[in-house]
Amino acid sequence: MSLLVIGSVAFDAIETPFGSTGKIIGGAASYISLATSLLHNRVGLVAVVGEDFDFDFIQTLNNRHVDTQGLQVKEGQKSFFWHGKYHMDMNSRDTITTELNVLGDFDPIIPQDWKNPEYVLLGNLSPQVQLTTLERLETRPKLVVMDTMNFWMDIALDDLKKVIAKVDVLTINDEEARQLSGEYSLVKAARVIREMGPKYLIIKKGEHGALLFGEENQIFFCPALPLEEVFDPTGAGDTFAGGFVGYLASLGRTDFDAMKSAVVYGSAMASFCVEKFGTERVASLTMDELKERLALFEGMMKL
Ligand code: AMP
Fold this sequence. Notes:
Layout: E1 3-6, E2 10-16, E3 19-20, E4 24-26, H1 28-39, E5 43-50, H2 55-63, E6 66-74, E7 80-86, E8 93-99, E9 119-122, H3 127-135, E10 143-147, H4 150-155, H5 157-164, E11 169-173, H6 174-181, H7 186-195, E12 200-204, E13 210-213, E14 219-222, H8 236-251, H9 256-273, H10 280-284, H11 287-301
Parallel strand pairs: 1-5, 1-9, 2-7, 5-6, 9-10, 10-11, 11-12
Antiparallel strand pairs: 2-3, 2-4, 7-8, 12-13, 13-14
Helix pairs in contact: 1-8, 3-5, 6-7, 8-9, 9-11
The structure holds adenosine monophosphate (AMP).
């Protein structure tokens, strides 16, 4: 099953109560590609970077069999840059800087090999680019999953709603679900958002786990693994989404029961992401480590 990933590949600077980084590798599609490629071996990436990017990271993706034919490198331009600062509770953060740079006029060119993917993950990116990506596919994928953030709700809500209408699964955090729906109750928010188009909605609640909503009365909850230390939550949502879709693509299924397991896979992968700054921990994650953690989840969720 082929799995196409699109999203930002970027530089981040991160400040947490435990320390701060200089420019490090970040971007939604960086985390997603690392997560999906642990679970699935047919992953293609469509993204854009500037000539300042760290190309060792692209080699890391290639070593994990991520096909980067669709990665554009813009001569004389700078990569997307995001600077975020976490509050003491690590569940909320402020964006200090967003420099779109190459993302400002990104035209997503889909390589011919990737025009008929079975699974698509539209990672965090301008909704216009997410929409263009879908329009450029030759066949309707089996499953389209989309992730987004409040930044796009603030500046491009109309476009965002157009993409949301076309996807099967939307993943957002609780604050964003409330902003998008205008409802405080997450159950009401899920109803409003599902009426916008997606059959399934995943609401990520950080250290409080994730909720999966399906058709009427289909609700699944997966806790987050209680961790002694959360070092850096950046990319946890992307890693979650990557684990979720990577698992579904490896099974070749899209039904609610498979999605329940996929949410557990996503949560387990995200629990590693937060252990170190940036992409480092997801990049070094092994299948054995993941299996051990899945067993912890199973124990934690059993009555
Ligand atoms: P997450 O912590 O899962 O919400 O994702 C964090 C990643 O999203 C960071 O690595 C950023 O580079 C990336 N990011 C932040 N803002 C944007 C944006 N407006 N568009 C695309 N990617 C973004």
